[in-house]
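Marked as duplicate of an earlier ticket. Keeping the data here for the record.
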Amino acid sequence: MSNHNSSQPLSGLLVAEPGQGTDAVRLQTALKPQAGSAGKISASIHLPVQGAWQLVVEVNGQHGPASASTDITVGAPGAIPPWLAWTIAATPLILIVLWVHRQRRYRRTLLAEKDPEALVNAGL
């Protein structure tokens, strides 16, 4: 029979250990009781480096210590949002269309000054 106090609250750590090939340091944060939920604990951790990680949950409770782990892979977010990438990519095309339109208008004015009938014959 265990000698542990049954009213002992849960406590523990969430540990993130970098995997092989991941240039990072070990991170940890305390597990905290969830508000309004008896017997439940939670934590969150920010993994700042892309690569392989092992998450380890270490818990101390009325039945003693325990731990569990899982392997995860952290990916990098996109460099910029897709809508911004499309805006940047489309900008030169819009500028070219405006430039061509302006050149056509300029050509029309030159033709109208030189020979008004040439404008009609050119279909402009």
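See parent ticket for discussion. The chain has two helices and six strands.
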